[in-house]
Amino acid sequence: MKLEGTGKPRKGSGLMAYGITYRPTREEVKNFIASHCLDCEEEGKDRRSGHGLFILPNQPEPVKITMKIGEKTATVNGKQMQLDVAPFTKNDRTMVPIRFVAEALGANVDYIPKEQRVEIIL
């Protein structure tokens, strides 16, 4: 899998984001269909192409995280939670606690002190 970033920050409401373009290889597409899709065989068969109908698996519900600059409370899907550090702005950028955001999205966060490195695994 190859991810490519544009490298150009996009400005919006003070948040910084990078555009990422993902271009799967033909083999990755075939593997995805084989492992994530259900082939409905004859029911969804297109008479012209001969291809079956593929149904994607259920996708997880979206997660809504709301934080306010300077406040140490946030909401995740309407549930109020405490933050270790309040969001703040610096140089026209909004800084948010990445561990909180990543964990709210279901990721595991590890800090490797020896290397001063953070790993986020979703």
Molecular structure report:
With 122 residues, the chain is mainly β. The chain contains 2 helices and 11 strands. A 3-stranded antiparallel beta sheet has the order 5-6-7, with no helix packed on it. A two-stranded antiparallel ribbon has the order 1-2. The chain has a two-stranded antiparallel ribbon with strand order 3-4. The longest helix is centred in the N-terminal third of the chain and has 11 residues. The N terminus is likely disordered.
Keywords, separated by commas or semicolons:
three-stranded antiparallel beta sheet, single chain, disordered N terminus, extended, 2 helices, about 120 residues, about 15% helix, mainly beta
Give a short synopsis of this structure.
The chain is mainly beta and 122 residues long. It has helices at residues 26-36, 98-104; strands spanning 3-11, 16-22, 38-39, 54-55, 65-67, 73-76, 79-82, 88-90, 93-95, 108-112, 117-121.
Structural class: mainly beta
β-strand number: 11
Mean of residue pLDDT values:
75
Strand order of the largest sheet: 5-6-7
Q: Share of helix among residues? A: 10-25%
Beta-strand content estimate: 35-45%
Question: Quick one: overall form?
Answer: extended
Main sheet makeup: 3 strands, antiparallel
SSE order, one letter for each helix or strand: EEHEEEEEEEHEE
Task: List low-pLDDT spans.
Answer: 1-18
End-to-end distance, in Å?
15 Å
The quaternary organization reads as single chain
Count of helical stretches: 2
- Radius of gyration (Å): 20 Å
What is the fold's blueprint, element by element?
Elements: E1 3-11, E2 16-22, H1 26-36, E3 38-39, E4 54-55, E5 65-67, E6 73-76, E7 79-82, E8 88-90, E9 93-95, H2 98-104, E10 108-112, E11 117-121
Antiparallel strand pairs: 1-2, 3-4, 5-6, 6-7, 8-9, 10-11
